[in-house]
Structures are given as C-alpha cells and as structure tokens.
Design a protein that fits this description.
Radius of gyration: 17 Å
Number of helices: 3
Order of helices and strands: HHEEH
Largest sheet: 2 strands, antiparallel
Oligomer: single chain
Shape: elongated
Number of strands: 2
C-alpha cells in the first residue's frame, strides 16, 4: 500500500542522513518502525542490537554501515587507501552489470 506522510524537513533530513550512514533505505526503516510499533505488547519499544559483521575475521567498524556492500573488497583493511580501492572495485563491478 502506498501512502503520503507530511514529515517536517529537519526530521526527514536527519532520518535520511542516518539511513545513509547505516546503509538502509528510508522505506526499510519506516516499515521496520511501523511493524515494531504495531507488534508491541507491553508498550515498550523492542530494539535489536546493532548488526555486527566481520570481514576476513576482522570486526567491521560501526561507521562502515554506509559502505557495507563494499566491505568484502577491503580484505580486513580499513585504512583510507584500502577503503578507496574497495569502493572502486565495487563500483567497477556494479558498472559492468548495468
């Protein structure tokens, strides 16, 4: 079902920025929030712990959410050079698929 919501600009900008940082779509977050809210039984919001992942046995830093789809290319290295190479590899692969 489609709907239109009037959300204050400042709130939406913050939501969109946080979604980008965590690698999520605003739609995914909205659906998750609505689902959690209607499924509540005791009035307290249920929150899941943040998803933590690893690459080659190394923990992925929390700020890495926005680039999670490229993390496998970093091979456990998270310095800026490794991150730039990883992004370039991911973009090259994405470009070859389109």
């Amino acid at each position: 079902m489609k709907t239109t919501l009037d959300i204050p600009d400042q709130v939406y900008r913050r939501v969109k920025a946080k979604c980008a940082m965590e690698g999520l779509a605003v739609r995914e977050v909205a659906i998750g929030l609505f689902s959690s809210w209607v499924d509540e039984t005791d009035g307290a919001a249920k929150t899941a712990p943040p998803e933590s992942g690893t690459v080659d046995g190394q923990p992925v830093p929390a700020w890495f959410g926005a680039l999670r789809k490229h993390a496998k290319n970093a091979r456990g290295r998270f310095d800026m050079d490794a991150i730039r190479r990883s992004i370039a590899q991911g973009r090259a692969r994405a470009g070859s698929r389109s």
